[in-house]
Amino acid sequence: MSARAQEIGARVAAFVRQVVVPYERDPRRSAHGPSDELVAELRERARAAGVLTPHILPDGSHLSQRETAYVLRQSGLSPLGPLAVNTAAPDEGNMYLLGKVGTPEQKRRFLDPLVRGEARSAFFMTEPAVDGGAGSDPSMMQTTAVLDGNHWVVNGRKAFITGAEGARVGIVMAKSDDGACMFLVDLPDPAITIERVLDTIDSSMAGGHAVVRIENLRVPADQMLGHSGEGLKYAQVRLAPARLSHCMRWLGACVRANEIATDYTNRRHAFGKPLIDHEGVGFMLADNLIDLKQAELMIDWCADVLDAGEPGGTESSMTKVAVSEALMRVADRCVQVMGGTGVTGDTIVKQVFREVRAFRIYDGPTEVHKWSLAKKIKRDWKERQK
């Protein structure tokens, strides 16, 4: 790991542990995530500490994916950490996409406020599966975009749109005659209505996850991101690193949960000795160390692939499956070894368990990634037969 990443990561870890962790009991946290007031307060403290948006350097360049992995893991040591230091989803992925695809004017208008931590964003891709829309398959997208003069008119519905409530920047995916497109929009917009914020198992992301209706949204032609019909390509530019950064953040959360479980089992006595000395408990914590290290190595491997300039779709799918499943095991064991305390709000272990359970679905369920990998296995086999 580079010296600069170690230095940045150490400052982020210290800030999260010393400043952010005490906010974990703040009443401004709800089932739909921390309030915007709380997010603004945390970001102001991060700005003062010099750790706001730590993965983007002052000249606008990014840390490498390997370096980002180290820094984002430190930000994840608290469920509030990524929001506090501005490395949270969907903003982190949206910043990455805008940095890669946006025009200079689009970056000035839409990216710069995100980097400064002055605004939140939302990525409008997923659609309600009950309407036959694009759940985990964006090729099924039903939202349409029709060119009318120098504007595009967008209509459709979206679901599970993280952070839509309270966002100021939106990236909307829709389908033109050319194929999938992406549009940059200022939020709120009267043509975009939040029908409801879903009651989900997780609660760490500001604004929660919304179902949204888009009716005759008029977007100036110069606010299309890239070119008409290339939206699926841009989605892959965003999604491969975004899957990986999810893994980074939740690895940090599970490291912290394991620290709490370890402390608990060393202090708690039962049947004449500390819990840690009971093999059934000690072995679970040993398994946690193995899973955490394997998750870390998978993340670093995938980061190296992306840093080498490869698309990384296959590698990010493999990593997302392996890491989300491993971290689910870690979080589950932390709850189990802590017994009744593990299912209470006395520590963040309960929340980490719930967040990681959702992570197994968000950015593609495990089964969708395995299906994609199986298709690649078949394609590769056919190529070898030629």
From TrEMBL:
<dbReference type="InterPro" id="IPR036250">
    <property type="entry name" value="AcylCo_DH-like_C"/>
</dbReference>
<feature type="domain" description="Acyl-CoA dehydrogenase/oxidase C-terminal">
    <location>
        <begin position="229"/>
        <end position="376"/>
    </location>
</feature>
<dbReference type="Pfam" id="PF02771">
    <property type="entry name" value="Acyl-CoA_dh_N"/>
</dbReference>
<dbReference type="InterPro" id="IPR009100">
    <property type="entry name" value="AcylCoA_DH/oxidase_NM_dom_sf"/>
</dbReference>
<protein>
    <submittedName>
        <fullName>Acyl-CoA dehydrogenase</fullName>
    </submittedName>
</protein>
<dbReference type="InterPro" id="IPR009075">
    <property type="entry name" value="AcylCo_DH/oxidase_C"/>
</dbReference>
<dbReference type="Pfam" id="PF00441">
    <property type="entry name" value="Acyl-CoA_dh_1"/>
</dbReference>
<dbReference type="InterPro" id="IPR050741">
    <property type="entry name" value="Acyl-CoA_dehydrogenase"/>
</dbReference>
<dbReference type="InterPro" id="IPR037069">
    <property type="entry name" value="AcylCoA_DH/ox_N_sf"/>
</dbReference>
<dbReference type="GO" id="GO:0005737">
    <property type="term" value="C:cytoplasm"/>
</dbReference>
<dbReference type="InterPro" id="IPR046373">
    <property type="entry name" value="Acyl-CoA_Oxase/DH_mid-dom_sf"/>
</dbReference>
<keyword id="KW-0285">Flavoprotein</keyword>
<comment type="subunit">
    <text>Homodimer.</text>
</comment>
<dbReference type="GO" id="GO:0050660">
    <property type="term" value="F:flavin adenine dinucleotide binding"/>
</dbReference>
<dbReference type="Pfam" id="PF02770">
    <property type="entry name" value="Acyl-CoA_dh_M"/>
</dbReference>
<dbReference type="GO" id="GO:0033539">
    <property type="term" value="P:fatty acid beta-oxidation using acyl-CoA dehydrogenase"/>
</dbReference>
<comment type="similarity">
    <text>Belongs to the acyl-CoA dehydrogenase family.</text>
</comment>
<keyword id="KW-0274">FAD</keyword>
<feature type="domain" description="Acyl-CoA oxidase/dehydrogenase middle">
    <location>
        <begin position="122"/>
        <end position="200"/>
    </location>
</feature>
<dbReference type="InterPro" id="IPR006091">
    <property type="entry name" value="Acyl-CoA_Oxase/DH_mid-dom"/>
</dbReference>
<feature type="domain" description="Acyl-CoA dehydrogenase/oxidase N-terminal">
    <location>
        <begin position="5"/>
        <end position="118"/>
    </location>
</feature>
<keyword id="KW-0560">Oxidoreductase</keyword>
<dbReference type="InterPro" id="IPR013786">
    <property type="entry name" value="AcylCoA_DH/ox_N"/>
</dbReference>
<dbReference type="GO" id="GO:0003995">
    <property type="term" value="F:acyl-CoA dehydrogenase activity"/>
</dbReference>
